[in-house]
Amino acid sequence: MKSFKEIRKTLSEEYYSGPTAYVGSDRTNVGDITGTDLGGMGSGSEKTQYPTTNNIKMIEAGLNSELVGVVKDPVTAITRARTKLNMTGLSFDINAKDINMAMSSGEPYVVNLNFGGRALGRDPGDEERDDFADDMGMVGRIPYEKTLPAMDVSFDIEMVGTGFKITASIV
Fold it and tell me: For residue 64, what are the domain limits?
């Protein structure tokens, strides 16, 4: 009979590193195959503290790789892409009614890009929730989201067969 030490030598506790279809925070290679690395943010921002203007195009490519293909429900697809984008600290609001209007009219769905719930590049005094943030120790410090230029996310929703093709661009 083998001892525990002998059995332990033959086991490998490395996690599966092949293609995955779910978000993982360990060694799963989420996005390595499809290109959704999101500017190096998927690893917990080890080397890059926050998104920068230098990696916005990479983040945009990652967002588009989440939207690749033909989808039945654009609201769900855009919501899933936003979930992936949230790893970077960036996000955007989703309004299902506006997305459905954009689908039917052929116009793009455009929404403000924000960081931590606060719009990028805009005066932080414009929003009520900034008053709360100022009370929490933000006095005298420039919020990070104000250091980035104001950006919007534009989603072009195109009818393809029985579904929709969605393309995102950060402008």
Answer: 4-170
